[in-house]
């Protein structure tokens, strides 16, 4: 790894160490992480998966993502909001996903809260989450420079909790903001830095 914190891949592209070995993580980094997501279903899916990831590796969640999508009706908030006890039992028997009862219940609760947000003057889930975009984004040169929370992620966490969401702590919300492009924490030397269109001048 260079002093810049990035690793040069065999394809000549620079990435952080965490995205340089596992092909699954490398593809996710190159094609998804930090790419803007502005639709309700997409934000709900990522919010849900970030909650399931708590205490686990992101690679574990990515490998299980197809099973998660099947189990949770492709993360349709309208469908998941209607899940009942039989669905919880089904999910707890599904070895393809992370079988954590509290997180399963949180996903159902968050789907119901997502439907409630549609009536909010601040907009649906996607609009609400994006309303916490900061005025500036971090400019990390090494992984140690990447923050794990921010004033905006703390405010988003508090705001979502007030609106009935759970498993939305400030660290989880910062990870969500990174994943959907609200902040750009790609390392300065990475080939993905400032490519989202949200922060074009932050190289």
From TrEMBL:
Sites where the protein binds Zn(2+): 186
Pfam families membership: Adenine_glyco (PF03352)
One record GO biological process: base-excision repair
Cited InterPro entries: Adenine_glyco, DNA-3mA_glycosylase, DNA_glycosylase
GO terms of molecular function: DNA-3-methyladenine glycosylase activity; metal ion binding
Keyword check for Metal-binding: yes
Gene3D superfamilies documented for this protein: Hypothetical protein, domain 2
Key words, A-Z: Metal-binding, Zinc
Name of this protein: 3-methyladenine DNA glycosylase
Top-level taxonomy: Bacteria, Bacillati, Actinomycetota, Actinomycetes, Micrococcales
């Amino acid at each position: 790894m260079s002093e810049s914190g990035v690793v040069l891949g065999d394809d000549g592209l620079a990435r952080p160490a965490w995205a340089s070995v596992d092909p699954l993580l490398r593809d996710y980094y190159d094609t998804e992480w930090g790419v803007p997501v502005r639709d309700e279903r997409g934000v709900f899916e990522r919010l849900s998966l970030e909650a399931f990831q708590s205490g686990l590796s992101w690679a574990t969640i990515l490998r299980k993502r197809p099973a998660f999508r099947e189990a949770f009706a492709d993360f349709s908030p309208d469908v998941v909001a209607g899940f009942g006890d039989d669905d919880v039992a089904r999910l707890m028997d599904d070895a393809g996903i992370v079988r954590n009862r509290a997180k399963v219940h949180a996903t159902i609760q968050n789907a119901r809260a997502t439907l409630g947000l549609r009536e909010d003057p601040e907009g649906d889930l996607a609009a609400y989450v994006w309303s916490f975009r900061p005025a500036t984004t971090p400019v990390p040169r090494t992984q140690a420079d990447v923050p794990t929370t921010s004033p905006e992620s703390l405010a988003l966490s508090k705001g979502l909790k007030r609106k009935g969401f759970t498993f939305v702590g400030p660290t989880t919300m910062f990870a969500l903001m990174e994943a959907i492009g609200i902040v750009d924490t790609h390392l300065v030397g990475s080939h993905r830095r400032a490519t989202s269109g949200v922060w074009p001048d932050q190289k």
